[in-house]
Amino acid sequence: MCAVFFAGDYPMIAFVERTFADAAAARRSFLLVLALITALRAWFAATLPFTSDEAYFHLWGRHPDWGFYDHPPMIGWWLAALDSLSQHRFVLRLPALLAPPLVALVGWQLLRRHGEALAWSGATLLLLVPLNAWNVAITTDIPLMLFGALTVALYLRARASGRMADFLLAGFALGGALLSKYFAGLLAIAIFADMVRRPDRRSLAGLALIVVGSLPGAAIQVAWNSQHCWPNVMFNLINRHGDAGLSWRTPLLYLLSLAYVLTPAIAWRLVTGRTDGAAAPAVRDECASLRWLALAPLAIFAALSLVKTIGLHWLAAFVLPAVLWFVLSSGARARAGALATAGLIAVAHWLAIGTLALLPTETFRSLSSYQGVVMTAHGDELARALAPWRGRYVIASDGYSPAATIGYALGEHVIVFGPGTSHARHDDILTDFRALEGRDILIVRRRAASAADYEPYFDRVRLRGISIRGAVFHLVEGEGFRYPAYRDRVLEAVRQRYYALPRWLPAGPCYFCDRYFPERACRRQAGAER
């Protein structure tokens, strides 16, 4: 098995090596792989159910702003534009469908000066690495991938040309990445590390221009956060890390994730720095920059993995420099082995996803998460079942994931009723519970509810249930919402748990406390909530 990953005298690897040795054949192979992958992924985009995260980001697009609770605004802006065309999942997923081919073309353009055959083999490998080969979910990682690739391309061009305008353009691209996801900061750290490893006047001036170019993106985020309780800071640095702690499992899981996302051969060579043969000085310098751009962020993730689970999608934006470094630093046989391995992994994923998509939903009835599967895959049936309550009741759920999923199926905002969790508290911005005083609210739950848990907040409470494909959804009919009781019990607990700002954050407007607790500060003092 290891030989298949790294290379060896195998007919498939020999065939791939011969194919990509010729520029014309390599180009035809790239176009064939591109057509096949695009067709399969287009089918996935049109047929696979919209995930809860996708529905959540679509909610951002329905309410565009300069920022959102847990991430920068770029994906919300994109989805706002797409939503004006259609709410169909295929249309909303178009950026995710197009991102891998665009990243592959960026890679091709960067490799062209080293040879057409090499460039086409690198572009094909970028198409085939696992996340690019199958993922169609529209998330914050998609704009980060595109702006990150553009940043890498412009930065390498600036390093080669020495033109100050190119450094400034790289800064603008980095600003777009910063408006997409905060992991762009890791790319900024990598650029800084690469530029100061051999500093001179020109490189330091170029670094300053990259900073200048990225400042507008950073300034937008600082300005919006300072006027909205600093939610991105609270979520990413404080509220989401309650489960953090030293563990031997999370570093091991991260190593497996790295080997999966990059494929084993690329990950191994990147970590060890192994290269095949000598290269010209210009190529060595470009390879060194690419390795810094890939390895610095991945090393930071490795350090974080000691106490935190690193998500697969966190690595997506750093695949491009890793693959380009591998292509430039490896021989033809190693590249063929990597292409063959990535191709086999891609085929396995396509078969698995296609099979799962064609299976009846009831196949998964034994899963503990079956209600979530039905809610995601058959939101239209759930929407029809909820029709008797729509218009008369405000529709709600007890968490952001079901609220977003149901909301996408209904085509309307579904509120989060109850304390929820640290994740995705954007509903605190959108929902004003003061305006719901006296209203009837229907809470849709995946788990059974107790009437006693809801009676303090309503004049009358009734429990019902509906069954869809064998999955039971529990409904809480609350008539006559009592806002004061909800404020004093639920919203006060939310204030203490999620809006206790540390003293080092400057004071400013806070939508949550200004709305519900104007007499109390959202501020943590001397390590205790007051």
Overview of this protein structure:
The chain has 530 residues and is of the alpha/beta class. It has 26 helices and seven strands. A five-stranded mixed beta sheet has the order 2-1-3-5-4. The chain has a two-stranded antiparallel ribbon with strand order 6-7. The radius of gyration is 25 Å and the shape is globular. The N and C termini lie far apart (59 Å). Residues 1-8 and 526-530 have low confidence and may be disordered.
Question: How are the SSEs placed, and which strands pair?
Answer:
Elements: H1 2-6, H2 11-19, H3 23-47, H4 52-62, H5 74-83, H6 89-92, H7 94-111, H8 116-128, H9 130-134, H10 141-161, H11 164-178, H12 184-196, H13 201-226, H14 231-239, H15 249-262, H16 264-272, H17 281-304, H18 319-329, H19 332-358, H20 370-377, H21 379-385, E1 394-397, H22 400-410, E2 415-416, H23 427-430, E3 441-445, H24 451-454, E4 458-468, E5 471-481, H25 483-498, H26 511-516, E6 524-525, E7 528-529
Parallel strand pairs: 1-2, 1-3
Antiparallel strand pairs: 3-5, 4-5, 6-7
Helix pairs in contact: 2-19, 3-7, 3-8, 4-5, 4-22, 7-8, 7-10, 8-18, 8-19, 10-11, 11-13, 12-17, 15-16, 15-17, 16-18, 17-18, 21-22
